[in-house]
Design the sequence.
């Protein structure tokens, strides 16, 4: 068992095997980067850059007016592949934060109305869970996404120590 | 009708990416691997799940205990961790290889170059893949900035 004290920060080992400095990137697959780019930019609000014929990076757009509420620059590294060998499940999703509950409603309407255009596989119902208001949806490549509104106070509570 | 003109939000209403999610067989075992092997921070915030992050909790990984239903991931769906230098990548690779049985590591890729930086990946006991690289955020910033230039 770990000898890390889980009751107070920083909840990390003083001598781990991997001397990790940053967790800043996740990778995923898409069958058609052009179609994915349209979806990422128009629906997910991400900025994209193609760095090769079969590779694209995507990340949130920095908005100075929202600096205090913005989340750090996590980058998605997307490779084009003719086949999606491991279709993702809802427990493997990417979470995107929206400004308000109303925005979650608005994005749900937007995706339902444009489900065919973006070739979305599923758009699930909106729910309240873990004090967040959100919904899940899967894209044409079986990648799952979540749009959520999580009040800042709730977010901070998660990181105050083990709850169990 | 163009998707870009129908009820989408203003740019400032998108606040960014807050999390990714994954699965594990057993929370205690998964936390041990994340903290002692990968060097990440973890907190168990509910009976069935815990969160993992590094330095800044505004991006975290939420991990759900799914027991025997835990699905195996492919290498193409992985998390990338950066270390300080190529030397740290090589050290991590050597230790991962020599301690593979101790940590229950399912698979390890050969040490190679990715975007000019040393890189390898390990598949943890739950089937999740973790890439270890000396590539840092500067590399990504340069890619986005080059596109805008």
Sequence:
């Amino acid at each position: 068992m770990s000898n890390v004290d889980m009751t107070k920060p920083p909840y990390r080992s003083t001598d781990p095997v991997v001397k990790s400095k940053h967790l800043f990137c996740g990778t995923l697959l898409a069958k058609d980067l052009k179609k994915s780019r349209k979806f990422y930019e128009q629906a997910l609000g991400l900025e994209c850059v193609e760095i090769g014929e079969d590779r694209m990076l995507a990340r949130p757009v920095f908005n100075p007016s929202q600096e205090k509420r913005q989340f750090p620059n996590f980058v998605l590294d997307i490779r084009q592949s003719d086949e999606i060998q491991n279709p993702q499940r809802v427990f493997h999703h990417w979470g995107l934060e929206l400004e308000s509950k109303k925005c979650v409603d608005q994005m749900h309407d937007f995706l339902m109305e444009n489900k065919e255009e973006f070739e979305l596989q599923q758009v699930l119902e909106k729910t309240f869970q873990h004090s967040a208001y959100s919904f899940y949806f899967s894209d044409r490549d079986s990648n799952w996404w979540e749009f959520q509104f999580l009040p800042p106070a709730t977010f901070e509570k998660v990181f105050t120590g083990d709850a169990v | 009708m163009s998707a870009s003109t129908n009820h989408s939000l203003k740019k400032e209403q998108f606040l960014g990416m807050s999390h990714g999610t994954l699965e594990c067989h057993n929370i205690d075992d998964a936390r041990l691997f994340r903290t002692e092997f990968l060097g990440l921070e973890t907190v168990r915030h509910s009976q069935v799940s815990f969160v993992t992050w590094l330095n800044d909790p505004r991006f975290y990984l939420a991990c759900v205990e799914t027991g025997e239903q835990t699905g195996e991931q492919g290498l193409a769906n992985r998390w990338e961790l950066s270390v300080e230098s190529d030397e740290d990548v090589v050290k991590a690779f050597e230790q991962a290889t020599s301690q593979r049985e101790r940590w229950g590591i399912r698979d390890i890729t050969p040490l190679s170059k990715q975007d000019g930086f040393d890189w390898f990946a390990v598949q943890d006991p739950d089937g999740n893949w973790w890439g270890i690289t000396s590539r840092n955020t500067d590399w990504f910033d340069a890619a986005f900035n080059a596109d805008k230039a």
In short: The first helix of chain B runs from residue 27 to 37. Chain B touches chain A through 77 residues (CB under 8 Å). The two ends of chain B are 32 Å apart (CA to CA).
